[in-house]
Design brief:
single chain, about 350 residues, alpha/beta, nine-stranded mixed sheet, two-stranded antiparallel ribbon, globular
């Protein structure tokens, strides 16, 4: 059954939105990006909160010295991306929460636009703005672009970004749209809903945890939307580079976990068998190109998935991959065989 938050408060009252920036040893990023977030965020609507994940650099001193107007939550340990945000939402009480990366620059009116949209659409559980590259604001940014999707095999792609191809922003995706997932770089969500579906899965550690969260939101009967009338600029690349086999490991393992968790009994085994075949092809490609560390990362991902899957015993009855048009596409064949490198060239 769908549940909607009903504790609406007039905009003239206390701020309804917590903009939570999770920080871990990000002193330089805070000094670079936080001033613009403060300047462009309507303080009547939103409260800016920095949740510090046990930093050991000068982050805390910087916050206390240069940003006394910002509320801070100081954790003793590094709880990771998922654990840090879960803890922050336990300690805050706002109608909406924005998960905002510390390397994101916001633009004037961004929070007003997202807040108004969520207030006007009670059936929307989460949304994201248009995300452009901070280094080249004519291009969409990899982590979210103008809204995220997954294909029939569970591979993520975006309006404005398919695999490594990021499109130029020419206004082609300026209309609000239903999406499958909103980017963790800037994700606005109903706080009660976040808690009700269990928040971010700490077992993922990094990568795809926001897609897993959004999948659970959709299963609750809510919509997820891209709201490109609001724009932010993401630096990106701050976690693990593509050249690191650890990133390959996390992407492969977490994709398997996400499918295992969120698919029903009747289709889960068949879908995971298909992914095993596709991952074997990826493994063979790495071996053929002498990238043995990446091939080993895929093997380890499957081994660890086999152990971790046993902890997930509750599965939904609905197969979202079969009932949504945007999940029926095979993004691999569209991109590599048919040469469709842009979102608007895809055939749903």
């Amino acid at each position: 059954m769908k549940h909607h938050d009903t504790n609406s408060t007039p905009e003239t009252a206390a701020p309804q939105v917590a903009v939570i920036i999770l920080n871990w040893n990000g002193e330089k990023l805070l000094s670079q990006f936080l001033p613009e977030v403060i300047a462009s965020t309507n303080q009547q609507i939103a409260r800016i909160i920095v949740a510090d994940n046990g930093s050991t650099d000068g982050s805390r001193e910087l916050l206390q010295r240069d940003f006394p107007q910002v509320e801070c939550l100081y954790f003793d340990n590094n709880h990771g991306f998922a654990g840090g945000y879960n803890l922050a939402l336990e300690l805050t009480d706002y109608k909406y929460t924005v998960l905002l990366n510390s390397d994101v620059a916001t633009s004037a009116g961004w929070i007003d636009t997202l807040y108004s949209f969520m207030e006007m659409h009670p059936d929307v559980g989460a949304c994201q703005p248009k995300i452009l590259s901070f280094c080249d604001n004519s291009k969409f940014e990899y982590a979210g672009a103008a809204g995220g999707f997954i294909d029939r095999n569970g591979y993520p792609y975006c309006r404005g970004r398919i695999f490594g191809t990021c499109e130029n922003d020419n206004g082609q995706y300026d209309s609000p749209a239903d999406i499958f997932w909103a980017s963790g770089a800037c994700l606005m969500i109903r706080s009660q809903l976040y808690r009700r579906v269990g928040g971010l899965d700490t077992a993922f550690f990094a990568h795809m945890e926001e897609i897993d969260l959004c999948w659970r939101i959709l299963l609750e009967g809510y919509r997820i939307m891209a709201v490109p009338q609001a724009t932010v600029f993401h630096l990106g690349g701050g976690s693990l580079p593509d050249s690191n086999p650890r990133k390959t490991y996390l992407n492969f393992r977490n994709n398997l976990l996400m499918l295992h968790k969120n698919l029903p009994d009747g289709t889960r085994g068949r879908k995971l068998f298909g992914r095993r075949l596709l991952d074997t092809i990826a493994w063979a490609k790495y071996v053929a190109t002498f990238k043995f560390r990446f091939a080993a990362a895929i093997v380890k991902a499957h081994r660890d998935f086999a152990k971790m899957r046993k902890t997930y015993t509750v599965h939904p009855d609905i197969n979202l991959l079969s009932i949504r048009k945007d999940t029926r596409i095979n993004i691999l064949t569209s991109y590599y065989l048919k040469g469709r490198k842009t979102f608007d060239s895809l055939k749903f």
